[in-house]
Specification:
With about 140 residues, the chain is mainly beta. A hairpin with a 4-residue loop joins strand 2 and strand 3.
Amino acid sequence: MRKIFLAVLICTLLLTTVLAVKPAVLPASDVRHLYLYEKTPADWSIVDGGAWGKMMYSSNFVFNGHGLVAGTGYTLVRYKGTIWPTVECLTSGTSNNGGNINLAGGIGSYGDKVWLVLSSDVDCNIGAMTAWNPTEYLFENNLF
């Protein structure tokens, strides 16, 4: 009798776990990833061994960039591809002595181009690029 009770209890627990309702909080698998790379402006191919970064996002984002110029100010911008040179500044920071940067912020919408540009090349007060030095930037590999 005791063995039957334990078997029923175990089956009930397993069945409850399998049929559990999905929680309201998004699981880690719903976090999206966007890679940014240093590219050759002539054909927009990725530079082998060049600087790169990874953006993980859902409603907020974390961006980690690597192989950048040490001690340099960078700004993560969104370009909607409509009116040049209009961009939306997402956040800014300075790369460390190892050429790495860690940025975080909020995401308003998806489907736009995301670039890591030199902070000196963008004016976030007016939301516009003020210079164009694409060999110093990271560009998305696909739209986010």
